[in-house]
Amino acid sequence: MKIKQHLGFISMLALAFTACQQKPAETDNFLENEIKNIEAQHTLQTDLIEKSGKILNPRTIDEKGNIVYVPIDDWTSGFFPGTMWLDYDLTKNEKWKKLAEKYTEDLDSVKYLKWHHDVGFMIGCSYLTGYRLCKKPEYKDVIITAAQSLSTRFRPVAGVIQSWDADRGWQGERGWECPVIIDNMMNLELLFEATRLSGDSTFYKIAVSHANTTMKNHFRPDNSCYHVVDYSLKDGSVRNRQTAQGYADESAWARGQAWAVYGFTTCYRYTHDKRYLDQAEKTLNFYLNDKNLPKNLIPYWDFDAPNIPNEPRDVSTAACLASALYEMDGYCPGKNYKELADKIVKNLSGPDYKAKVGENGNFILMHSVGSIPHGAEIDVPLNYADYYYEEALIRKRNIENNQPFSFVNE
User: Fold this and answer.
1) What is the per-residue DSSP string for 141-196?
2) Residue 166 pLDDT
3) pTM score, whole prediction
């Protein structure tokens, strides 16, 4: 279902020439340098989009280095519009606000999407991020409608939001009834916000039920998490615990651990239920203490991948975890979570992981992994890695300036 639109050779030549002209000057200020780099890359990216006369949504690059654009029903469609909003937050430049509005509002019909759970990513990263920055009333309505659509996937017997339809695509070949993936924890923020914006507690109750059931069934004794838990629609019992994107059913898929840490931290933000923060910390401790975690804290794609250290790293995991750590630092003083996040961000900003301007399909970070079992997006940039990296930078800035998170409304 992915749509690929490729850059031509002439466009690439023009892009390379333009990049030479726009290389940002280095300063002694870390955040200032990162903002300059982001603006340079995103200027090239959005110039290509604007010149096309279309609204294109970049997700990654293909094996030939061509930019891959996706339709609005792709699960990653909210991340690039979201980065435009984060650009605006970082710079206060109206250019990025206008582009953010344009690319975000192209996703309007996603609010009615009911056939998978990722509407939380899609609308949360775009419309919700935009609403926090500009308070457009029509965005509020989209957020609430999207939450209603997501809520149709709630299965009350099991107490969870079903992630994937069990009769679609490759998922339909696994024999699942009600598959729930740890990624779904990232979509609960949309529900919590919908209750805050509408006053309807239904969304909040669904989010809490899903979080509680996930906390009960998704974690091993060492507090690593499974990727997929399949529930019985008849009685809500667990049918299987498996993986879809990890190395093996019993391995610890790296990004899944980051989704868990981030997702349960978010649940604590809205509920102040310490059990959620405790779970986030337990999984974080598993992550940090695993023997296969590299010293620079940029993990291999799976902690149990068979050929470590000759396995791809996953930058998207590190970026997501860094962002979560900055928030956790505010809830857990004295545990040095900010220092850990700073280390990750600093390493991501170095030449091993941050692309040169005009390269890497104009994405910020290199070396992420989508799904090795599916042979998809291996050692490439991913738009969600960039999104969480920018979010981490904003959280870092706010902490260091004694400001509240601009995206947290309590």
Assistant:
1) HHHHHHHHHHHTTEETTTTEE--B-TTSGGGGGTT-SEEEEGGGGGGHHHHHHHHH
2) 74
3) 0.92
